[in-house]
Each structure stands twice: as structure tokens, then as C-alpha cells.
């Protein structure tokens, strides 16, 4: 993905930030310390002047000067969302943040920057407090001290994601702020820790295969956008990554037709989706080839699937359109709605839906093809599988409003109904036991609400 590297991208927050002192629990801004707002008794309230900076999201800030930056992230964003069908309401929320009237802030002009079309910037300490209030920080072992020590990185990651999603970094709404600093960035920090742990198991000079991280999450919950954001962060921090989806390994159109003929009357295998509709040998070949990209200059094309082919029945995309990745890869991000599902006793799945019995039998081969290659897991959990219907309906409505072809409400209901039996059968075991062969300490389970935001586990 094109874009400036971390050495070139500076957050406007960082224009005045030097570092965080762990002993005093203070940040230093241009040589002047100020305490954070955290509930720690050491931390006190303070008066700090708010900087005023340009609102253009296409600029990078270096040495307190604005440098116009041209990026292809806009095109990639549009391509990503058109492919994923994501409505991403958190991005579209343009409401303003409201600060209490009792705020002690005053305004100050930054003479090094243009003074036209200015906006206010929240203080670094308020963002620090916001980060520490997130539902994932304790779960991934991030203390306020660790956040403070790495605050410059958090600000940089936030700046990069704002560029990717075309957000005004200086005027984020609460939903936007939460999605970046309570969700995407904490997961990225966790992934970095997993990569470091993985690399530590090898000796200097060894070829270190990329870490494979599996993302198991129901359809429509935002996993594709999460992986999209993580992939961007890895690339902008000079860590080579590759993304694959279980969708990339669907049978060809010819293979799907054969599957339908072999299972007449089974609605769960009429179209792509459930276990049995994937080319498992092809997935093994692809994953093993990716894990061998350990040296500079090694390249391969990664398969992609065209869901629009054959009037929506789909087919494997033309290999000439597949994206190319180059080694040495540090991480492979593998996402899918049914990753980690385990086959269950036949009587259990038949009680959910008799048509699920053959799907359950097919699932027996999936561990060897997918799950055994996954070293660490992110499992995104939902309380009710019916959320999937609501999310899919939102996405289709958004597509129709944008003038694109989208399924009708009845078609959405029919589409989702082909996946619900598997959700009802396999999600309880996945949530209770974790994916097959996984190590509990290498599984990050994230509970999300109906708005796709992480919540504290109950």
C-alpha cells in the first residue's frame, strides 16, 4: 500500500510532544512538563493552551510546518468499502465533540502554520486519559504507564489511520475517536506484541516465518475493516504484511455448481459460504507459500475472489488481478466468519438444522487446512447471531442509497438464513473453548455491541 513511512508521517499532536516521564507521570511539551488527567492521585488537573492547526487531512506535520502529502489511501479506501459492502457509520458521523463549559483551555495561534480555516486540537493529556479508559487496555496488558511511555506511537498510529479513513484528526467525533483509540490501535499493539513473542523463539540469523494471526468474527461486524486498518499500520511502520480471507479460497464457479448437484435440496450448500464450499488444497498451498516469504525479493501473488461474477454467484478472480506481496513478511492476517469452528456430534447439529449434518462432516477437514497454521487469534464475539441480519441489511441499504446494486430486504433475509444455523451451532463452543489447537494466552477475545464497538466483557 502506498503511503509515507513512519519516519515521514508526523501527527499534529507530536508537533509539541517530547516524551512522557514515568516517574513523574508527566508529559513534556516543548520542554515544559504537564501532568496527565488519569485518576491516579499523582495526576492533577491543569491549565494548558490548545494549539490551533489547519484542518486539512492531507498534510503532514514536520518540524511544526505543514507539508502537502499526496496519498493513494483515498482510492484504496473507496475500493475497500465497495468490495466489503461496509457502511462504516462511525466514519460517517460528522457530529462535533462537545467539551464541558468548565474547561480551563484557552486558544493560541501557531505562527508557524497558516492561520486560515483553523480548528482546535484537544490536549495530549485528554487523549491519554481517553486511551486509558478503553475496554481493551487491561485485557491486553497495557497500563497507563505503558501508554504514557509510548504515547508518541499512539499519536502516530492515530494520525495514520485518520489519513487512511479520510478523517480530520484534529476534530474527531466520539465514535471515530473510540473506534481508533479503543479498538484498532489496541489490537495493533497486541499484534505487535505477538510478533515480538513469535520472533523471540528464533535465533539470530534464522529465517523467521511470518506470524499468522486469525481473525474469527461474524459477517458484517467489521472484521474486514479492522484487518484493512491493521494492514495499513503494519505497512506504514515498515513491517511487511499480507492479508487473506477465507473468501479467497471459495470453490470456482464450476466447483460450486458441482457442489450444488451433489447436495440437491440443501440450502446451506446451494451457494458459497458454509464448510464444503472452499478449495482446501488451494488454501494450504497458498498459506504455506506465504509463510516461506522470509527473504528480501521473494514475491508471490495472493488469490482473490470475485463475488460479482456470474450474477453474484461468484468465481475466483482472474490471477492477473491478484495483488502481489513481497518478503520478508512479518505477519499474515487471515480473516473469516467461520475460522476456528469445530465439528460437533451429529445429533447436536441435527437438532439445530438437519441440513447442517453434511456441513458438519465437511468441517472435519478444516483444521488441517486453516486453523493449524494460525499462531495467534483475535476472536470477535457477539451476543446474538441475529445481529448479522441487521448489519447486512444496513450494508445493503447503504449500497442502494449510493446508487449501487444491493439485495432487497427479502434477499438479505434469505442470504443470512443460510449462515445462521452454523452460527447457532458453533459459536457457543468457539466462545467457551477457543479455536482448535489455540493457546489461551494467545487468543484475544473482544466482545462487541450492536454498533460494532468493543465492550467490557461481562
Q: What is the overall number of helices?
A: 15
- Structural class, from helix and strand content? alpha/beta
Strand fraction equals: 15-25%
Low-confidence stretches: 1-9, 29-71, 81-85, 94-121
Q: What is the count of structural domains? A: 2
Name given to the CATH homologous superfamily of the largest domain:
P-loop containing nucleotide triphosphate hydrolases
Characterize the main sheet.
6 strands, mixed
Strand order of the largest sheet: 10-15-9-16-17-18
Using only C-alpha atoms, the radius of gyration works out to 23 Å
As a percent range, the share of helical residues equals: 25-40%
- What general outline do the C-alpha atoms trace? globular
Arithmetic mean of pLDDT: 79
CATH C-level of the largest domain: Alpha Beta
Second rung of CATH, namely the architecture of the largest domain: 3-Layer(aba) Sandwich
Number of strands: 18
Reported by name, the CATH topology of the largest domain is Rossmann fold
Ends apart, CA distance between termini: 38 Å
Account of the protein in words:
The protein contains 15 helices and 18 strands. It starts with 16 loop residues before the first strand and ends with a strand. It has 458 residues and is α/β, with parallel strands linked by helices. The strands form six sheets. A six-stranded mixed beta sheet has the order 10-15-9-16-17-18, with helices on one face. The model is unreliable at 1-9, 29-71, 81-85 and 94-121 (pLDDT under 50). α5 crosses α7, α6 (174-199) packs across α7 (223-236) and α13 runs antiparallel to α14 (409-417). It holds the Pfam family PRK. InterPro entries: P-loop_NTPase, PRK/URK. Residues 212-337 form the Phosphoribulokinase/uridine kinase domain. This is Phosphoribulokinase/uridine kinase domain-containing protein.
Amino acid at each position: 500500500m502506498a503511503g509515507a513511512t513512519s519516519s515521514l508521517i508526523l501527527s499534529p499532536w507530536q508537533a509539541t510532544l517530547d516524551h512522557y516521564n514515568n516517574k513523574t507521570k508527566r508529559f513534556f511539551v516543548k520542554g515544559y512538563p504537564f501532568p496527565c488527567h488519569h485518576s491516579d492521585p499523582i495526576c492533577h488537573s491543569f491549565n494548558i493552551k490548545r494549539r490551533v492547526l489547519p484542518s486539512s487531512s492531507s498534510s503532514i506535520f514536520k518540524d511544526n510546518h505543514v507539508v502537502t502529502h499526496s496519498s493513494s489511501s483515498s482510492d484504496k479506501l473507496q475500493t475497500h468499502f465497495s468490495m466489503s459492502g461496509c457502511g462504516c457509520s462511525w466514519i460517517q458521523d460528522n457530529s462535533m465533540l462537545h467539551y464541558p463549559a468548565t474547561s480551563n483551555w484557552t486558544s493560541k495561534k501557531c505562527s508557524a502554520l497558516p492561520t486560515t480555516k483553523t480548528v482546535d486540537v484537544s490536549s495530549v493529556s485528554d487523549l491519554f486519559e481517553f486511551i486509558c479508559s478503553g475496554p481493551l487496555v487491561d485485557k491486553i496488558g497495557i497500563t497507563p504507564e505503558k501508554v504514557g511511555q509510548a504515547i508518541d506511537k499512539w499519536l502516530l498510529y492515530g494520525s495514520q489511520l485518520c489519513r487512511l479513513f479520510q478523517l480530520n484528526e484534529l476534530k474527531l467525533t466520539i465514535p471515530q475517536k473510540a473506534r481508533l483509540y479503543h479498538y484498532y490501535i489496541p489490537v495493533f499493539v497486541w499484534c505487535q506484541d505477538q510478533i515480538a513473542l513469535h520472533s523471540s523463539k528464533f535465533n539470530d540469523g534464522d529465517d523467521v516465518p511470518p506470524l499468522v494471526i486469525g481473525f474469527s468474527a461474524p459477517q458484517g461486524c467489521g472484521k474486514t475493516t479492522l484487518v484493512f486498518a491493521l494492514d495499513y499500520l503494519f505497512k506504514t511502520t515498515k513491517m511487511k504484511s499480507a492479508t487473506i480471507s477465507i473468501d479467497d479460497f471459495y470453490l470456482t464457479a464450476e466447483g460450486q455448481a458441482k457442489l450444488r448437484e451433489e447436495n440437491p435440496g440443501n440450502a446451506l450448500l446451494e451457494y458459497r459460504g458454509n464448510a464444503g464450499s472452499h478449495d482446501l488444497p488451494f488454501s494450504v498451498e497458498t498459506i504455506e507459500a506465504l509463510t516461506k516469504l522470509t527473504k528480501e525479493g521473494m514475491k508471490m501473488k495472493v488469490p482473490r475472489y470475485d463475488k460479482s461474477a456470474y450474477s453474484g454467484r461468484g468465481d475466483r478472480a482472474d490471477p492477473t488481478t491478484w495483488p502481489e506481496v513481497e518478503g520478508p513478511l512479518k505477519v499474515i492476517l487471515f480473516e473469516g466468519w467461520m475460522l476456528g469452528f469445530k465439528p460437533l456430534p451429529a445429533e447436536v447439529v441435527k437438532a439445530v438444522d438437519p441440513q447442517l449434518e453434511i456441513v458438519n462432516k465437511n468441517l472435519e477437514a478444516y483444521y488441517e487446512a486453516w486453523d493449524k497454521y494460525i499462531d495467534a487469534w483475535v476472536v470477535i464475539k457477539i451476543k446474538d447471531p441475529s445481529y448479522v441480519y441487521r448489519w447486512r441489511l444496513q450494508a445493503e441499504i447503504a449500497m442502494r442509497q449510493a446508487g449501487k446494486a444491493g439485495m432487497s430486504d427479502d434477499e438479505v433475509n434469505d442470504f443470512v438464513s443460510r449462515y445462521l444455523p452454523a452460527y447457532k451451532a458453533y459459536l457457543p463452543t468457539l466462545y467457551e473453548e477457543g479455536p482448535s489447537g489455540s493457546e489461551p494466552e494467545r487468543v484475544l477475545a473482544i466482545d462487541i455491541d450492536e454498533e460494532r464497538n468493543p465492550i467490557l466483557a461481562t
